[in-house]
Amino acid sequence: MTTQAMDLARGARLGATKRRRPAFLPYLLVLPILAYEGVFLLYPIYEGLRSSLYRQPLGRPERWVGLANYRRMLGDDGFWATMGTTLAYMAAVIVVVLGFGLGSALVLNRQFRGRAFARGLMTLPWAFPDVPTVLVFLWMLNPNFGVMNVFARTLPWVDSSPTWLLDPTLAKLSVVLITAWKGFPFYSLVILAALQTVPQELAEAARVDGASKVQVFFAVTLPAIAPTLLLLTVLASIFSFKQFTLIWLLTGGGPSGATNTIVIEIYNTAFRFYDFSYAAALGVAGFLMALTIALVFVAIQRRQELEAG
Amino acid sequence: MATTVRSGVAPHTPSRRVRAGRLARSVGASVLVLVVCLITFFPVYWMAVTAIQSSRLSTVYPPSLWPRDLDLTAFREVFRDEPIERWIANSALLAGMATILCVGLAILGAYALSAMRWRGRAVFAVFLLATQMLPEALIIVPIFKIYNEFPLLGISLRESLPGLSLIDAAFILPIGVWVLKNMFDTVPREVREAALVDGAGPIRVLWQIVLPLTKPGLVAVGVVAFFYAWNEFLFAQTMIQDNAIKPASVGLASMISMLDTPIDRLLAAGLIFAIPPVVFYVVMQRYIVAGITAGAVKG
């Protein structure tokens, strides 16, 4: 079809199909999704909110208690410790994942032989399922035979095998780094894609004018990928906030609460102590946190969409 | 060579010192590439090394960094001692159901978002973005209560793979719609509109024009959905206690807590479970990364 014919067709469409196209069709198309998510996401959120206002001793009917669960939560030092652990874990994961993601993206963005292979390798941790990831790291961190002991003992101040996941500080560090190992390829690949959109002429012109590579990075590259980095920061915060499986299987929240984030706390409260109504209240607190991050994400994305035109 | 990009900038013959500097930088860059690749690859390598060696080598300290012998008994024994085939079959069934549900619904929503302008479209898009961010663990308690007795129908969805696939699909659906919408956006508007003018209805346009043009995107969404359900642990662990219908993620995790399982068997089982997603992600990498990054980079 020629361009002209296409234009004609378009003109005809504006006149004819506007009336012909059924206006209800898009609603019909999204209705199944809305109904589905309504049943499986929105209704549970409502049900969680409702049951957080009740008290339900195991095997007995529930009883309205108003805000008692929330009063208990806000007055509980354990809750605030959990919140602190959650935020610290999130912050650490964000820093490591973005730092390493950016670093590896810059390294892989250069021309070198085997670049396609190196990039392909990056999908490996990303595609690797959570449970086998836990398996191999539990093995690597085994206090007796783990290979990490070999590496750790090459450090001058380490003269015996560390206890890894049994030591609060090392457990925190390990959980963050394992989360980051599995997570960073995603950030790296997204940043790589963003680096590809950085105008090369600008960087080259700056180089000709005598700017050093570091100067070019801060003056040209970084501003160009800043919107992507901002978006990724929010994504990293929500992904780390969501993280359950890795922490649960690595430490279960221990040792002595060192890795007890809010999602772990909810799970333990519900399925170890069978305190469903208090777990529901914790879920509402977590939900408010997730919603805040989600709204920031949506706001940033819409602003960037507007700026992009 | 690493310096070819810049050769156009400096037309004069580089001095020996400059050349030495470039060589040093290119060596430095290669070392960095190597470090990144090592960090990425080592845990998987280590898993494979332990699994393919004979058992006794895994209780030697310090361990050798490369395999000392080849002994695949662990793979044979784990099939003999654990119902691996059944776990894998359960996972495949679960993931298959979740994929069909997710792709089917995502096609409709993505088409409405990509090809149509309607009131409430922006709200729907925001709704999808927001639900995509919802942590599974926050609704595990109400979902568990609901699944014990589905309120409208009075049936239990617990201890059932179709029931589990329903909730998995609910969590992957927003991402599926989003990725597919980006794929559908690549079909030129003129192509769709020409077909509409020729008298095809919007659904026929979707079926006969948009979908055939975006097959890779469909496959990518299918792969992402399939392996989300394949990997999913939290819901599966909470809802399924019955050994006969355990998916592999739960089965594997239950092996961790059995202290007497030899490590090479555990890692062999883990490898078997990890190979399908790794193969599919590597093969489909281009489309998956394109689909997912399109959303993140383009906004």
TrEMBL record, chain A:
CC per GO annotation: plasma membrane
Transmembrane segments: 23-46, 87-108, 120-141, 173-195, 216-241, 276-300
GO aspect biological process, one term: transmembrane transport
Cellular localization per UniProt: Cell membrane
Main location: membrane
Listed Pfam families: BPD_transp_1
Superkingdom as given in the UniProt entry: Bacteria
Residues forming coiled coils: none
Membrane topology: Multi-pass membrane protein
Gene3D superfamilies in alphabetical order: MetI-like
Assigned keywords, A-Z: Cell membrane, Membrane, Transmembrane, Transmembrane helix, Transport
Domain called ABC transmembrane type-1: residue spans: 83-297
InterPro entries hit by this protein: MetI-like, MetI-like_sf, UgpAE/MalFG_permease
Family that this chain belongs to: Belongs to the binding-protein-dependent transport system permease family.
The protein, known as: ABC transmembrane type-1 domain-containing protein
UniProtKB/TrEMBL annotation, chain B:
Entry keywords, A to Z: Cell membrane, Membrane, Transmembrane, Transmembrane helix, Transport
A Gene Ontology term for the protein's cellular component: plasma membrane
TM segment ranges: 26-48, 87-111, 123-144, 164-184, 205-230, 266-284
Subcellular location field: Cell membrane
Membrane-topology descriptor: Multi-pass membrane protein
BP GO terms, sorted: transmembrane transport
Any single Pfam family the record assigns to this protein: BPD_transp_1
Tree of life domain: Bacteria
Domain ABC transmembrane type-1 span(s) in chain numbering: 88-284
Keyword Transmembrane helix: yes
Family note: Belongs to the binding-protein-dependent transport system permease family.
UniProt-recorded name of the protein: ABC transmembrane type-1 domain-containing protein
Organism: uncultured Thermomicrobiales bacterium
